Amino acid sequence: MTLLLLADLCMLAAGLYYGMKFVRHQHNLLLGIEWLVIGLSGTNVLFLAATGAVHSSFSYHLMVFFDAFSRSFGMTLIIVLGMLAVTHRYRPSWVVEVGAVAAAVAVGLNRALDVRPVELGWAIFYLVMNLAVALFMSAVAVRLWRIGERRHAIWVFVATTLGAFVAVIYDFVHIPGDDAEHTLFYILAMSVWALMLVTYYHGYHVLAMSRRSTAAPPAPVASRR
User: Which of 52, 61, 62, 219 is 20 to 30 A removed from 206 (C-alpha atoms)?
Assistant: First the structure.
C-alpha cells in the first residue's frame, strides 16, 4: 500500500504541476487538460484509499470516469493533437479541441455509469488506441534524437515503451501474486504514467524551443568600417 500511495503521489504531482505548465507556459490547453485530468485522478485515488474502495461510492465511479477518459481519447488522441504543435506546427481549431475532449468525456461517462469489468470490445479499443499513440510518440523520440536531444529522446522512448507494456497487460494479464484490487499492477502503471507525464512535457518543451530558434531571423551583421 505504501508503494501504491507513493506511485500515486508521483503521478498526481506530475499531472498537476506539468498540466499547469502546459497551460501557462506552453499555451497548450489540450495537453494541459489531459495532464490535469490525470492529476485529479490521482487525487481521487488518494481519497479512495483513505475512505475504502467501495464500488458503489461516487469516488469509485469518478475513478472509472478518469480511467476511461484517459485510456480512450485522453492519453491517445488528445496527446497526438497537442503534440502536433511542435512536430508539425499544427494547432487544431477550437472545434477539433472541443470534439476531442467531448469524445473522452462521453466514453468516461459511459464507463462510469457501468462499472462492471471491462468488456473485450472496450479492452481491444483501449489497446489499439494506446498502441497507436505509442507509435506516434516513438516518432517524436526520433525527432528529438535528430535535433541532438538524445537524452530526452531516450527518456521519451523508454516511457513510451513502458506505457505500451502497461496498455498490453492492463486488461489481459493478471500479475502473479496480485490481489483482487490489482495493487501490484497499479503500482507499476501509475509509476509509468508519472514517468510519461514528466518526459513528454520535457520532450515537448525541447521541441518547442528548437522550433523557436529555427524560426527566429538571423541577427544582423554589423558592417565593418
Answer: 219
Residues 72, 125: contact at Cβ < 8 Å? Answer: yes
Cα Rg of the chain (Å, integer): 19
Among the residue ranges 21-25, 174-178, 209-213, the one predicted with the least confidence is 209-213
pLDDT tens figures, 119-145 = 899 999 999 999 999 999 999 999 999
Alpha carbons 81 and 190: distance in angstroms, whole number: 23
Q: Which range has the worst mean pLDDT, 13-17, 47-51, 193-197?
A: 47-51
| pLDDT on residue 223 | 43
Residue, of 58 and 50, whose pLDDT is higher? 58
How far is 120 from 47, CA to CA, in rounded Å? Answer: 29
Answer whether 101's CB lies under 8 Å from 127's CB: no
Q: Is 171 helix (H, G, I), strand (E, B) or coil?
A: coil
DSSP state of 26: S
Residues with Cβ within 8 Å of 113's Cβ and at least 6 positions away in sequence, in order, are 61
Q: Buried b vs exposed e over 46-85: b needs ≥16 C-beta within 10 Å?
A: eebeeeeeeeeeebbbbbbbbbbbbbbbbbbbbbbbbbeb
What is the residue type of 1? M
Q: Pick from 158, 149, 151: which is nearest to 191 by CA?
A: 158
Q: At what angle do helices 183-215 and 29-51 cross, to 10 degrees?
A: 160
Tens digits of per-residue pLDDT, 192-202?
999 999 999 99
